[in-house]
Amino acid sequence: MRRILSGMQPTGNLHLGNYLGALKNWVKMQRDYECYYCVVDLHAITVPQDPQKLKQAVRETAAAYIAAGIDTNKSTLFVQSAVSAHTELAWILATQTPLGWLNRMTQFKEKSGKNRDLELLGLYAYPVLMAADILIYRATHVPVGEDQKQHLELTRDIAAAFNRSYNSEYFPLPEPQILGEAARVMSLRDGTKKMSKSEESDYSRINLTDDADTIALKFKKAKTDPEPLPDTLAELQKRPEADNLITIYAALTDRSRADVLKEYAGSQFSKFKPALTEVAVAKLAPMTTKMRQLLNDPAEIDQILIRGAEHANTLTQKHLREIKDIIGLWSVM
Ligand code: TRP
């Protein structure tokens, strides 16, 4: 059986990069996999959070999953902290994880400051919790972006270490589902930087709550160069801003970049940008509407999340019992 687990941190202001880089593929995977999608609030608190904003961001992120097309009758959508087996397994996996493996994690190195003694255990252990998120479902596949590949490799290493220690084959080694060429959506102001909610200028991104006029304005103002669009991918790659807009168009229309380029080679941006706006609005407007609708009815979101957590708890408690049995932890016979 093929099972997917993936998660995203709760953030307000989800943007086109989140949709095209992750959510769109999650939606597609529902066809072929049993899917579990969570909002990873326990990962979020590895850096300081405002409690009120965090609560709101969790619901907003869940709303975005649904608005993007996660079908909650088919897939399980839940909040990580509502399924306690994640953290219980994280402890167990910590007993299988050498410090040297964690010391190699580039994300920790990037996020941590100069003074090692001030770093928090939670931030350091973040990848172990992520491994537990995945392994508690015995997931076989994990859709991840480039920046999480190392954490998935570590997950495989930890799973293998557990299997070896206990002479079992309990955990499948999860395969990365590396996302297609749409995975990297860049800032509209700088084609070499990822689109991000933390970039100061709102013109750098298309938010999933932007209306049609705002989308049009942002693409109009998006940085480009004076040249018309080239006719080869090789030429395109030398022009990050142009490449980004073509990538976005291709991802929104499920076409390849080469195919889009064939249509627009030689065109000026004054022609291409309105076409891009049109496909973006057509795709995003129904999502935006759905998202607003959901956010106006948080009780509805909560009902969905309660149901998801119940389902996730049933499966993970069963797995946890099996894992405890393998390890020799006490459980009622
Ligand atoms: N660390 C991931 C990120 O920041 C989020 C995450 C947590 C995740 N647990 C996961 C992704 C399990 C995939 C599977 O993007």
Tell me what you see in this structure:
With 333 residues, this protein is mainly α. Helices cover 55% and strands 7% of the residues. It has helices at residues 16-29, 41-44, 51-68, 85-94, 99-103, 106-111, 121-135, 149-165, 212-221, 233-237, 240-253, 257-264, 269-295, 298-327, and strands spanning 3-8, 34-39, 76-79, 141-144, 175-178. The longest helix has 30 residues, at 298-327. The model has no long low-confidence stretch (mean pLDDT 95). It binds tryptophan (TRP). Residues 5-9, 40, 43, 130, 133-134, 142, 144, 148 line the site of tryptophan (TRP).
- SSE ordering: EHEHHEHHHHEHEHHHHHH
The helical percent reads 40-55%
Shape from CA axes?
A: globular
Query: In percent, how much strand structure appears in the residues?
Result: 5-15%
For the biggest sheet, the summary is:
3 strands, parallel
Strand order of the biggest β-sheet: 1-2-3
Q: Work out the helix count.
A: 14
Uncertain segments of ≥5 residues (pLDDT<50)? none
Mean pLDDT: 95
What is shown here, in short?
The protein is mainly alpha-helical and 333 residues long. It has helices at 16-29, 41-44, 51-68, 85-94, 99-103, 106-111, 121-135, 149-165, 212-221, 233-237, 240-253, 257-264, 269-295, 298-327, and strands at 3-8, 34-39, 76-79, 141-144, 175-178.
Which secondary structure elements does this structure contain, and how are they paired or packed?
Elements: E1 3-8, H1 16-29, E2 34-39, H2 41-44, H3 51-68, E3 76-79, H4 85-94, H5 99-103, H6 106-111, H7 121-135, E4 141-144, H8 149-165, E5 175-178, H9 212-221, H10 233-237, H11 240-253, H12 257-264, H13 269-295, H14 298-327
Parallel strand pairs: 1-2, 2-3, 4-5
Helix pairs in contact: 3-13, 4-7, 4-14, 7-8, 9-13, 11-12, 11-13
The structure holds tryptophan (TRP).
